[in-house]
UniProtKB/TrEMBL annotation:
<keyword id="KW-0540">Nuclease</keyword>
<dbReference type="GO" id="GO:0005634">
    <property type="term" value="C:nucleus"/>
</dbReference>
<protein>
    <recommendedName>
        <fullName>U6 snRNA phosphodiesterase 1</fullName>
    </recommendedName>
</protein>
<dbReference type="InterPro" id="IPR009097">
    <property type="entry name" value="Cyclic_Pdiesterase"/>
</dbReference>
<dbReference type="GO" id="GO:0034477">
    <property type="term" value="P:U6 snRNA 3'-end processing"/>
</dbReference>
<keyword id="KW-0378">Hydrolase</keyword>
<feature type="region of interest" description="Disordered">
    <location>
        <begin position="1"/>
        <end position="29"/>
    </location>
</feature>
<dbReference type="Pfam" id="PF09749">
    <property type="entry name" value="HVSL"/>
</dbReference>
<dbReference type="GO" id="GO:0000175">
    <property type="term" value="F:3'-5'-RNA exonuclease activity"/>
</dbReference>
<comment type="function">
    <text>3'-5' RNA exonuclease that trims the 3' end of oligo(U) and oligo(A) tracts of the pre-U6 small nuclear RNA (snRNA) molecule, leading to the formation of a mature U6 snRNA 3' end-terminated with a 2',3'-cyclic phosphate. Participates in the U6 snRNA 3' end processing that prevents U6 snRNA degradation. In addition also removes uridines from the 3' end of U6atac snRNA and possibly the vault RNA VTRNA1-1.</text>
</comment>
<keyword id="KW-0456">Lyase</keyword>
<dbReference type="InterPro" id="IPR027521">
    <property type="entry name" value="Usb1"/>
</dbReference>
<keyword id="KW-0539">Nucleus</keyword>
<dbReference type="GO" id="GO:0016829">
    <property type="term" value="F:lyase activity"/>
</dbReference>
Length: 221
């Protein structure tokens, strides 16, 4: 084993234990190793009271098909996959992100299409709201984030991304139960929700990067 306290190592209290029972049975996409920091670039969405009311309606209906479904506690739209950064890469990675994203302005998108997703290894299923307007600006952001990822020889974002805000999740691939009739009922709830056109037209004001337990914010102009 390497000696403790090497330059670039995180503090001991920042080390992460991999206990799936502490996070609802979710399985890591890659094993945790000391000095490796799971990193993700995204647009944070601060939920308003009306959005949480819509969420409650959607999750309540979806649980009649999948009782184990759990509502998300935080909301975001991903601009990268979850990648692994070495501890000493975090600072130059964030610096490069800040430079590439500095010119971007605030913009709107509409996220009003209910869709079912699974993660790559099919260990989790999600219900999300897919973006139906604002795709071009999101692709421009992803292009710049991808360039930073390439600098560090990390995987870029999906080739034809379905931009979305995840609303709820469950363990395993239960997409078959949620698609079809359930999905139609959920879309009807969204379409019929009072002021949903206003509520689901979202202005993005900042980009965020989470690396381990550290957060970095990049305000849009």
């Amino acid at each position: 084993p390497a000696p403790a306290g090497l330059p670039g190592d995180p503090d001991p209290e920042e080390a992460v234990s991999d206990d799936s029972s502490r996070h609802g049975g979710r399985v890591r996409g890659f094993p945790h190793e000391r000095g490796n920091w799971a990193t993700h670039v995204y647009l944070p969405y601060i939920a308003q009271e009306e959005f949480l009311e819509l969420l409650e309606l959607l999750v309540s209906r979806a649980r009649t098909y999948v009782p184990s479904l759990a509502a998300m506690e935080e909301f975001h739209l991903s601009l990268s996959q979850c990648v692994v950064l070495r501890y000493h890469w975090i600072e130059p990675f964030v610096r490069s992100l800040r430079e590439r994203l500095a010119a971007f302005h605030r913009f709107f998108c509409v996220a009003d299409q209910v869709k079912v997703y699974t993660n790559q290894n099919k260990t989790r299923t999600f219900i999300g709201l897919e973006v139906s307007a604002g795709h071009f600006q999101l692709l421009e952001l992803v292009s710049e984030v991808d360039r930073v990822l390439e600098e560090f020889d990390l995987p870029t974002f999906y080739k034809d991304p379905s931009f979305h805000i995840s609303l709820a999740w469950c363990v395993g691939d239960l997409s078959g139960r949620l698609e079809g009739q359930c999905l139609r009922e959920l879309q009807d709830i969204v379409d019929g929700f009072e002021e949903s056109a206003f509520l689901l037209r979202i202005q993005w004001e900042q980009i965020r990067c989470k690396s381990g337990n550290k957060y970095f914010s990049f305000p849009l102009r």
